[in-house]
Design goal:
- It comes from Pseudoalteromonas prydzensis.
- Pfam families: DUF2390 (PF09523).
- Keywords: Coiled coil.
- The protein is mainly α and 137 residues long.
- It has one domain.
- The chain is 72% helix and 3% strand.
- A two-stranded antiparallel ribbon has the order 1-2.
- The longest helix has 31 residues.
- The radius of gyration is 16 Å and the shape is elongated.
- The chain starts with 5 loop residues before the first helix and ends with a helix.
- The model has no long low-confidence stretch (mean pLDDT 95).
């Protein structure tokens, strides 16, 4: 099987995220269920490629990004939320928010590359109707 490409995944993820209520749904998975948006997007990507993963492979994907999520992305999101709640007291809030969002986007892309690196070490199973997201949710 050909290796998956992180740039193709990034393009797919950006497109899917912008469709309909997908952003709200993914953020609900993140905020209400503690799920990782990039992992959800990867599972949808695999579905679009007719590739299925096992529960063991899913667990390995989660492990591959867990520390990065906890040490980098979660604190950055918490910082953004705090600043937004206190924006009237923050000089130049708009510029700071813009820079934080830019950094977060770059870090999200890095996490996606981590997921692709991990999944490229797996033997993936072709499947006519995969539903990988149900393994995760």
């Amino acid at each position: 099987m050909n290796l998956l490409n992180s740039n193709d995944f990034w393009q797919f993820a950006c497109q899917l995220y912008s469709e309909g209520d997908m952003q709200a749904r993914l953020l609900d998975y993140q905020n209400q269920q503690g799920k990782n948006v990039n992992l959800c997007l990867l599972l949808y990507y695999l579905d679009s490629l007719n590739l299925a993963i096992s529960q063991d492979q899913l667990n390995k994907l989660e492990e591959s990004i867990s520390e990065f999520e906890q040490q980098v992305l979660t604190p950055l999101r918490a910082t953004r939320v705090y600043l937004k709640a206190n924006q009237t007291e923050i000089a130049d809030y708009a510029a700071i928010r813009k820079e934080l969002l830019s950094a977060e986007l770059k870090l999200e892309k890095q996490q996606q590359q981590m997921l692709i690196t991990t999944i490229n070490s797996f033997a993936l199973t072709p499947c006519s109707a995969p539903h990988n997201i149900s393994l995760y949710l």
